[in-house]
Amino acid sequence: MELRTAKYIEALKSCKLCGHRCEVDRLAGETGICETKAEIRISSFGPHYGEEPELVGRFGSGTIFFTGCNLHCDFCQNSDISQPGARGVKIDADGLVKIMLDLQKKGCHNINWVSPTHLVPILLPALENARKEGLTIPLVYNTGGYDSLETLKMLDGWVEIYMPDAKYGDSAMARKYSGAPEYWEINRAALLEMYRQVGDLYIEDDVAVRGLLVRHLVLPNDVASSMEVFKFIAEEVSINTYINIMDQYRPSHLAEKHAEINRHLTMDEYKTAVILADGFKLHRGFTNYW
Fold first, then answer.
1. CA 171 to CA 10: how far, in whole Å?
2. How far apart are CA 78 and CA 259, in angstroms?
3. What's the pTM?
4. Where are the domains of the chain?
5. Whose CA is closest to 287, among 233, 225, 231, 245?
6. pLDDT per residue over 215-235, tens digit each?
7. Phi/psi at 85 (5° precision)
8. CATH, domain range 4-279
């Protein structure tokens, strides 16, 4: 893999990094749906203790929040750092290398890239240099799950832990609430490719080392079509997939535009989702605790 990352910068000349496939020339300053130029901007970084226990361990997940996102979710809970208008702090590749090595020195169990899809060709050369300078902890690719196969092929061999969202089992809902056409088709292909690369989540001494970890946020009124998500993962990815079924939905950002999601999730809605997952024999990452 050494030095292969330099050629990936060329992908920014006709950007197809995500499902939008805008084909804009970001090297020439053009921007597409993500409204991001060919530069790295971060919102914050540091040991993070709010992730899954298998990522946090004792000393935290070394999280780097990149500014911007390729999805425009009307219910985004991080809209101040992810949606158009968010600025962040611009850093170069050397600055990113320093941050990653510093997080490793602090004892973090992994480097956790949050919302990196729109920046992959710029991030990989920095990762290559960080590996040369002694970065050994796993890389977590924390994504909304709207990644093109071209992007995932670039990442093959560099990512130890994939952590995608499986936001919707219905592309019409994804278009309506996240502005993401064909999300479910693109997400399914992405999940299969991620699994091909890293397999089921492998945990050693209570800390994730390698594999696939899927997140699914349950939405009010089953807007997320949870059953379709669980069915696909169980039948076509792996029955041993670690899936975090999340119950923390709250109406945020522009959720008030949609009456059906302009309220908190009920416990009965969450229980129903867990029962559905259990019915498909999924058993890792969530607990049927009632």
1. 30
2. 20
3. 0.96
4. 4-279
5. 245
6. 999 999 999 999 999 999 999
7. 105, -20
8. 3.20.20.70
